[in-house]
Write a structure and sequence with these properties.
- It comes from Miscanthus lutarioriparius.
- This is F-box associated domain-containing protein.
- The chain is of the alpha+beta class.
- The chain is built from 7 helices and 14 strands.
- 29% of the residues lie in helices and 32% in strands.
- α5 packs across α6 and α6 packs across α7.
Length: 278
């Protein structure tokens, strides 16, 4: 079955603790097609097959191209779906193909963030895959910012909706029906107003922190909060001089530890490195 208006996106599957070798998995992404009523509706010059557009996606047997650093070759592999599909091909085209969608590799499986915000869990050892539907309330029409991440506790996803609401879920894989469990839900609008900030401040900081990867949302917001608290602390204590600056750096660390010890140790050095380079 040849599907028109598609392209491939490659994702890295690698864990140096697990193996010195890595794999690259090529996943299909669909070009955006305007719907009736959209400004560009009818502008596509490529005719689409109605029968194919109504077929389920992803298919029961998904053919993916996988590169292995061990063999240094690409190979075509068939992955059998466990569970239901996400929808049909035409529904995939309603989501922008150029949106950033990352993947995480955890315990031998690659978790790929796909169009319409479902996650494709690809087991490279068993040649099977599973469709994980997005968390409740995550819909394409709401334009959520959705990012995958991982920790020792498994796979996470974080999102910002409306520029202010931050939510974090943990993927529960204890049963056959994998589901997202809400771990964090905060509305930052009151906090922004209290500190005389706007949504634009959060968005600008997020854009400036792209090299942080999928966890940049929570880290960036944490950094903003820390900067505000430090500024208030400096105004109150009127800190100046090398000795006082050292206290400020210690305050950075203390505040980070109060938010999340893991984030504190991992990104404390990053914050100061960014300051020196700016």
């Amino acid at each position: 079955m040849e599907i028109k208006e598609t392209f491939q996106v490659e994702y890295l599957a690698y864990d140096p603790i697990e193996s010195p070798y890595f794999k690259v998995v090529s996943v299909t992404r669909f070009g955006w097609t305007p719907e009736p009523g959209d400004f560009l509706y009818g502008s596509s010059s490529v005719p689409l097959d109605p029968e194919i557009e109504q077929s389920e996606w992803p298919p029961s047997v998904c053919i993916l191209h996988v590169f292995s650093s061990r063999t240094r070759q690409w190979e075509e592999r068939s992955f059998v779906r466990e569970g239901d599909s996400m929808g049909i091909v035409s529904e995939m085209r309603r989501d922008w193909p150029t949106e950033q969608r990352n993947a995480v590799y955890w315990r031998g499986a690659l978790y790929v963030h796909c169009q319409t915000d479902y996650v494709m869990r690809i087991s490279l050892s068993s040649d099977k895959y599973h469709v994980i539907k997005p968390p409740p309330g995550i819909e394409v029409k709401h334009y959520p910012q959705f990012y995958l991440g991982k920790s020792s506790n498994g796979v996470y996803c974080a999102s910002i909706k409306g520029g202010c609401r931050v939510q974090v879920w943990n993927l529960d894989e204890s049963s056959c029906q994998m589901e997202w469990v809400l771990k964090h839900d905060r509305d930052l609008s009151k906090w922004l107003l209290k500190n005389k900030l706007s949504i634009d401040h959060v968005q600008i900081m997020v854009e400036k922190s792209k090299d942080l990867g999928p966890c940049r949302i929570l880290i960036t917001i944490t950094i903003i909060a820390i900067e505000i608290m430090i500024w208030k602390h400096q105004q109150k204590r009127k800190l100046n001089g090398p000795h006082k600056q050292l206290k400020t750096r210690n305050l950075h660390g203390a505040l980070m530890m109060n938010v999340d010890p893991t984030v504190g140790w991992r990104f404390l050095g990053f914050i100061h490195a960014k300051r020196l380079s700016s």
